[in-house]
Design a protein that fits this description.
Layout (H helix, E strand, L loop, with lengths): L2 H12 L10 H14 L12 H13 L8 E3 L8 E12 L5 E11 L3 E3 L2 H11 L2 E2 L1 H16 L3 E10 H4 L10 E8 H4 L1 H11 L4
Parallel strand pairs: 2-5
Antiparallel strand pairs: 1-4, 2-3, 3-6, 6-7
Helix pairs in contact: 2-3, 4-5
This protein binds zinc ion.
Zinc ion (ZN) binds next to loops.
Length: 205
């Protein structure tokens, strides 16, 4: 066992109280164990011994938003064209099956008085991805955040994603994508601006 593994083992052993995020790890692990046992999965084999801990840790990671510094800046140069970050990869968990859905988000805004560091557009997507989500709500939450924090002249968010609950079960619609969009301000009202946004992200939807 490497020193880091040893340290992690030790951490797990002593993490009997809730951590800062309020996550009760021992309880989550016990619940995963209980779930598999109820499903008649035999966890006694050596390769499954650590599975409840790993599954609980995976859910913790996927359900814990990564905080980011949402600093905005005055638009001193008066930039008034679209700012767009396209093909931002993300993965979230669907609210109905807790299975992953993943794809890309295209996030743009038409600056007003304030602008935002470019990397922040991806961070907003990732922040709202880390919960049990519905794609429509994720799209709107990202748009609402920009609208609220920047008071821009327009906001456009388009998300294209493949849902595992549709591809590996149910209708088995492998390869099908769900596209959602939220537009505010001039991106909603002015056809030319909306067309520019859609052609920049390369979708005709
Ligand atoms: Zn689902």
């Amino acid at each position: 066992m490497s020193p880091i593994q040893e340290l992690n083992e030790h951490r797990n052993a002593i993490s009997i109280v809730e951590d800062d995020a309020g996550i009760d790890r021992p309880r989550a692990q016990a619940a995963i164990r209980e779930l598999f046992e109820a499903l008649r999965v035999d966890l006694s084999s050596p390769d499954l011994h650590d599975t409840p801990r790993r599954v609980a840790a995976m859910y913790e990671e996927l359900l814990t938003p990564k905080d980011f510094n949402p600093t905005t800046f005055p638009n001193d140069d008066g930039y008034d064209e679209l700012v767009l970050s396209k093909d931002i990869p993300f993965t979230s968990l669907c609210a109905h099956h807790a299975l992953p859905f993943s794809g890309v988000a295209h996030v743009g805004y038409l600056p007003g008085e304030r602008i935002l560091g470019l990397s922040k557009l991806a961070r907003i997507v990732h922040y709202y991805s880390r919960s049990l989500q519905v794609q429509e709500r994720l799209t709107k939450q990202v748009a609402d955040w920009l609208d609220r924090e920047l008071a821009p002249r327009g906001v456009g968010v388009v998300i294209e994603a493949e849902h595992m609950c549709m591809t590996i079960r149910g209708v088995h619609a492998a390869g099908s994508k769900t596209v959602t969009s939220t537009m505010y301000g001039l991106l909603r009202e002015r056809v030319a601006t909306r067309q520019e946004f859609l052609s920049l992200i390369g979708t005709s939807s």
